Amino acid sequence: MRIREETYWEWADSQLHSRSHDEQLCDGTSIDVQVRLSRTGATQLFLGLYARQGKALLEEYYPTRPGETMSRALVWGVDRARALATGALPLEQADQRRRA
User: Fold this and answer.
1) pLDDT by residue (tens digit) across 55-88?
2) Nearest to residue 43, comparing CAs of 71, 23, 22?
């Protein structure tokens, strides 16, 4: 079970249609990437990394991904989440509450 933090709850809106990608890595880390269109038509992205026990390692919310479709934003988010989870991008440099 994932233990969601403030960034997720800022993102959450059950009335908006979204697409998601869930993945569990061999070390037990799980990736949750979600994309949606806002009420004004902006592509929005959420990505979360969670430890085996469900604790949030990182949550990022992008209120807008200018010029990106939902599909393109989802691919970008999955690639970023995998890079952060595997150490290709250091977690220390990730903005825990990103508002791009």
Assistant:
1) 999 999 999 999 999 999 999 999 999 999 998 8
2) 71
